Amino acid sequence: MSEGTVITITSGKGGVGKTTITANLATALAMRGHNVVAIDADIGLRNLDVVMGLENRIVYDLVDVIEGRCRLRQAMIKDKRLEGLSLIPAAQTRDKMAVSPNDMRLVCEQLREEVDYIIIDSPAGIERGFQNAVAPADHVLVVTNPEISAVRDADRIIGMIEAEEKGPGRLIVNRIKPDMVARGDMLSIEDIVEILAIDVIGIIPDDEEILVSTNKGDPLVRGEDQNRTGAALRNLAARVAGEEVPFLDLKAKDTMLSRLRSWVGGRS
Amino acid sequence: MSWFSDLFKKEEQSGSIAKTRLQMVLSHDRGDISPGMMAVIRDDIIAVIAHHLQIDPESVVVNLDQDERESRLVAQVPLQQAKKREL
To answer: What letter does residue A241 receive in the DSSP assignment?
Structure first.
């Protein structure tokens, strides 16, 4: 069996959707038939467990593994709903200093033997927690939102990923609102790519269904419906797995008003 | 633009305002040079050049430009007639 790949999801700014994307990416990869483990590296602010709906089954966590209180296998919570998916939760009562970048490398070295993909949910910020999450990474995916503060922080993180020689990272633009872009009130994907000069691997439209799925602890990608945010997340997983998938056409619905505006203003 | 499109013309859209502001702030972030530091650099450049050449300090422009992820300091110093130096 070939060695597993370590992918770290990071952002700089908090609240842009890292944890949701980690849960959905890990789930979608498992749905494609891969063995996947998601690691919550946000020590002290555990959250990936609730987003994945596995919070009631935690016995051991990442810090227990690192400090030798349990074996790695014991801290891997298997998702009973989906073959091939498991979670290593963060410790809730410790802080980031309980883990070192080298600890993360050692844990991932062991996991590489067991699974195809190791998806690490990085904490926000640029300190120790970020360094821990990025240290074992083969690939780093940077999540941003189409707003000034998130793009600015993404730029900082992209620079740091290059400094750690983990670059070039790839970008996931989350929570895009196509109708706001169409009326010129939101940074477009093109704007963000031009500014950050980085390849895009995911474009995820904003959708209330994300919150609904988080409420239930059931990642959106698992639904078989026509939801385009779920489709965009499954496409992200396909690209991570090396497939070439075109980006969804997210143009807002063609209304009389938008047609008139684009005709008058010469925009498309 | 015709009178017709002027009729529909709105003030600058907030998306493009965001883009311009981001480009400005990132050029400083990437160069790690604050606007205050830029003003000091500008004054120093003017002082050095004015020592040798005749320039109008008001017309000197010093900016951070960016190309992909590289930043560079670009100074535009229009020259007036070269000052005759007394030896």
So the answer is: T
